[in-house]
Design goal:
Number of strands: 10
CATH class of the largest domain: Alpha Beta
CATH superfamily of the largest domain: Radical SAM ThiC family, central domain
Structural class: alpha/beta
Shape: globular
Length: 439
């Protein structure tokens, strides 16, 4: 029984109760949102260490961390360390995008150690296994792809990205709608290449019912991938992107009919002035299913700083209705992220998500900012550290600049500190008022 089918029956699951507690809302609200498809709880029945998370309308904005091996760096121990760093930094989910080393071992270790939902892109594993024996992706059989999906489902994967909207129709349309960067999605490009080599339809689209049966059996949440997402500002919100989005909207309803939870992925590279339109268009076309965006990056010229360009877009996207932000690290477009890159990416996107929560009027977010301001007014450094996104970094900076918990000011302003001055002024005026009133 999936979370969606449970909600439609009017039953509140343990996972729904946990999410309601985390969100400081009622279990009935969570159940109702899941029943309408506006919220998902990715929770494979075989993921035993999972602490459920809710993603969708009316909840706090969530973030995802991508980890995984490459052909050149195949240490699953490193990826486990990235997992631990991500969870400590506050990620709400992780995706194992491994394409090097023992893929089954890496995934199983990550699932076993992860308390947050784990996602994958099964096509990556299927393609990696095929290309280890042949240089032709066209030799991958649809049966092999579905075998990989079933294997990952059995292992406990909570959500899977499938580029099911990349169809033969879109492949033909690409000839009449040229792009500057064509297709930058790894899964999208592999799917297009396979279809062209085999002169065949996307097997995930052609056998969508079979995919849904696997997801329903294990309660896997489908993440409908944006294989045609724009890979540069020049290609944002073009015909190909919108064609795929309309197809995904149709598939959302099909998944719901099967009782399968579903969310939809979005761009990509989008200038600030197009972010609102992208989010509202997606919500309309995809029936208000949760929207999962990569960034979006609002400019193409900042390699080494793309965690910032993406967080700017992510904050705007979440304000306008995106529910799930996929983090971007400083090494985006340059190389495999280091452990430090992963931490930077998570923290940066936690800031973006929180900024959006504030703008959306989330009571918990507003309370946290109020308490931080109160602690600053009181020069209460321990409370400021506790409330900060990254307490260890905040403490380290203060202590390394000559400050300590006994000092009333920081080393930027010292005795000229405006907060200190105003506190003293307020105390002095209060004493004067008391004295005058006593007379």
């Amino acid at each position: 029984m999936t979370q969606l089918l449970t909600a439609l029956e009017g039953t509140i699951s343990n996972e729904m109760r946990q999410v309601a507690k985390d969100e400081n809302t009622s279990p009935d609200f969570i159940r109702a949102q899941i029943a309408t498809g506006k919220v998902v709880i990715p929770a494979n029945i075989n993921h035993k260490s999972l602490i459920p998370k809710g993603i969708g309308e009316g909840l706090k904005v969530k973030i995802n961390t991508n980890i995984g091996t490459s052909e050149d760096r195949c240490s699953y121990e490193d990826e486990l360390l990235k997992l631990k760093v991500s969870i400590k930094a506050g990620t709400d989910a992780v995706m194992d995008l491994s394409i090097g080393g023992s893929l089954d071992q890496t995934r199983r270790e990550i699932i076993r150690e992860s308390t947050v939902p784990v996602g994958t892109v099964p096509l990556y594993q299927a393609a990696t296994e095929v290309l280890s024996k042949s240089n032709d992706i066209g030799t991958m059989s649809p049966n092999h792809l579905f075998e990989v999906i079933a294997r990952q489902a059995e292992d406990g994967v909570d959500f899977i990205t499938v580029h099911v909207g990349v169809t033969r129709e879109i492949l033909k349309a690409m000839d009449n709608h040229p792009r500057l960067t064509e297709v930058v999605s790894r899964g999208g490009s592999l799917t297009l290449d396979w279809m062209d080599r085999n002169n065949a339809e996307n097997p995930l689209y052609e056998r969508f019912d079979e995919l849904l049966k696997i997801c329903r059996k294990y309660d896997i949440t489908l993440s409908l991938g944006d294989g045609l997402r724009p890979g540069c500002i020049n290609d944002a919100t073009d015909t190909l992107q919108l064609m795929e989005l309309m197809k995904l909207g149709e598939l959302v309803k099909t998944a719901w009919d099967y009782g399968v939870q579903v969310m939809v992925e979005g761009p990509g590279h989008v200038p600030i002035n197009q972010v609102e339109m992208n989010i509202k268009l997606m919500k309309r076309l995809c029936h208000n299913a949760p929207f999962y965006v990569l960034g979006p990056l609002v400019t193409d010229i900042a390699p080494g700083y793309d965690h910032i360009t993406a967080a700017i877009g992510g904050a705007w996207a979440a304000y306008f209705g995106a529910d799930f932000l996929c983090y971007v690290t400083p090494s985006e477009h340059l190389g495999l992220p280091t452990i430090e890159d992963v931490e930077d990416g998570v923290v940066t996107f936690k800031i973006a998500a929180h900024a959006a929560d504030l703008a959306r009027g989330n009571k918990e977010a507003l309370k946290r900012d109020y308490l931080m301001s109160k602690a600053r007014k009181e020069l209460n450094w321990e409370e400021q550290f506790r409330l900060s996104i990254n307490p260890e970094r905040a403490r380290k900076i203060r202590e390394s600049r000559g400050g300590n918990n006994q000092d009333s000011t920081c080393t930027m302003c010292g005795q000229l500190c405006a907060v200190k001055t105003m506190n003293e002024l307020h105390e002095r005026r209060t004493q004067k008022c008391s004295k005058t009133s006593g007379e």
